[in-house]
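Q: Structure for this?
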Amino acid sequence: MFRVIENRMIVPNIHLLEIEAPAVASEVRPGQFVILRVNEDGERIPVSIADWDREKGTIMTTILTIGGTTGDLAKVPAGADIPTVVGPLGNATAIDMFGTVLCIGGCYGIGSIYPIARALKEKGNRVITAIEARSSYLFYWEDKLEKVSDRIIHITRDGTKGFRGHVGRILEIMKASSETIDRIIINGCTFLMKRGTDASRPFGIKTIVSLNPIMIDGTGMCGVCRVTVGSNTKFACVDGPDFDGHQVDWQELLQRRKTYVREEAVAFRTSRCEEHRTKP
Amino acid sequence: MAEPQKKKLDLNRREMPKQPPEVRKHNFGEVALGYSIENAVREAERCLQCKKPLCVSKCPVEIDIPGFIKSVAQRDFTTGIKVLKEKNLLPAVCGRVCPQEEQCEEVCVLVKKGGQIAIGRLERFLADWEASQETVGIPEIPPSTGRKVAVVGGGPAGLTVAGDLIKLGHQVTIFEALHKLGGVLTYGIPEFRLPKAIVNREVDYLRRLGTEIVPDFVIGKTRTIESLLKEYNAIFIGAGAGLPWFMNIPGENLNGVYSANEYLTRMNLMKGFLFPEYRTPIKEHKQVAVVGGGNVAMDCARTALRLGAETRIIYRRSREELPARLEEVENAEEEGIIFEFLTLPIRYIGDENGWVKEIEYLKMKLGEPDASGRRSPIPIEGSQTKLSVDAVVCAIGNSPNPLIPATTPGLTMGKKGNIVADEQTGKTSMDRIWAGGDVVTGAATVILAMGAGRKAARSIHEYLCSLS
């Protein structure tokens, strides 16, 4: 069992969970994820690790509440236990002295890009962090990100903070301020990563994305997380989750992520129906 | 020459009652119902108690088969289960899923006199009898030797190693990547063939013997083998064959194309058939094609059938070459699985939303025997045919899981990604590390993994005793 130390909604629909998982906390590196289960009947879902405290033995994760399981997770009170936190899974994000690195985060990825930016900064890179949201009230962890970035850029769909528009504008913004970018790393929803990748393609800048397909075991056993990269099938859980965004078949990924949309809706609707449960 | 045909079970031996096909195809309850006491005793009485029993020599874990059968014939079930458990930690499992017709029962001298003794059914009977008793005995454990063993993977091989070593007084910890122990017994083999309550019971028995069990812990990720070596005297790796094969044909990443591992895991480990009470979804498919001819393919097909789909097995050779147990093939046929023999999928065709809607396949004919001794399938030119489906399950096998090799540089690996280990002792290229089961052999059977576990446990015990 793994104790939830803290669980609160930090912005609408995004919950920050701090969970006691000493074995994971002692090994985790930026860009890795864990698989969680909320209760004994629960499904296994992969979530990115956004921060950790090795001494305290805890990990933090930022979760977008979107379906049945993430909805259940949002309701776990601090002090309660959840049955599964397994990891750290996947390969860590490659950290090296690249020069100037543009870290882009959106949604839950504003959290998971943080340890990556921090590690890049420690390595001596110039780190520019760009965060994207629909509106300014959806930003979080700006103070943490500021500490590890040489420059912060905000992009909002409604223009309430920073630049107006979406992540597709980022290279244009960079150009306007004469920044030369050596590498781009994007964490967030599939659509954000695809748009960011599309934007950087004409400039030929290496763009690393952290893919988030459906997973079950997270150890290579089930193969549901397969993605096409270049012309090869890869398992995101053991071969990734980081891949060269310019090689990813985004169409296929977006389509595979939709496999259980209808069932998710059922799960979400029934997530409050304790009285209708039929299992013994 | 082709492989000898699998023998049909002789009717003279005691039949075991089953749920009728029309009933069982609508439920997930166990198909075979087990012997009654009377049936078991009468079957046991047929045993000739050979002086040199051939059956024992064919048993990978060397069970004293005439010994436990004699006890059944004498209605001394307490002694019977004791004899059985001396050599087999998981009799309720093996009685159900071992291919006895290729092992112990194959060599039974009664084959011409009313049929081989139903060794597997008697094994199952004793295990179930014990479970129905109020208390399940625990053998006396010698005082602790103070030696620590880490077992990586809670499947059949790992459970056997743990059971053998704990009974010798060593301290054993099992690390399991998933949230439940049992490996393929838990995520792979369906409820209707091996009820999960039985697996849980066997794991619980190990726990009561004093085994430390650590689920949700991935060796190679949460901790490395190297780090375990600092804390444990010996390590056994039984991580299994956990990397599914695909055929590398167009359309395999369409929605609705599953690996057998995914399909079975959703159903068995995650209980998808009880969605949404259990949170892991499974689709309601109407026409399912399962590619492959082994036991796993039969399990997938019979699962899909129980969920209401018209289900086909797509197999490139003929019925004679099916690698699945004959019993399972017959069960599948009785339940209404459609077999498409001599067919080889060449691509999957999707609809506008990226869901699989058709399989295109080639018809095959049989040619000369290949390396496996089975007649190899040859495509018939111009025989492309399409079949409507809304799901495909690819059940063509697995490679050993790469997580441990990738993080254990000193380990010698085989060509197929398997860990190289000595056949007799399970010793790997690294000091103090043993391995066995599918991670060494590639996908094989539960009992072979248990046999490998038995041998490794013996070697580990010798090593631990040699430490001063």
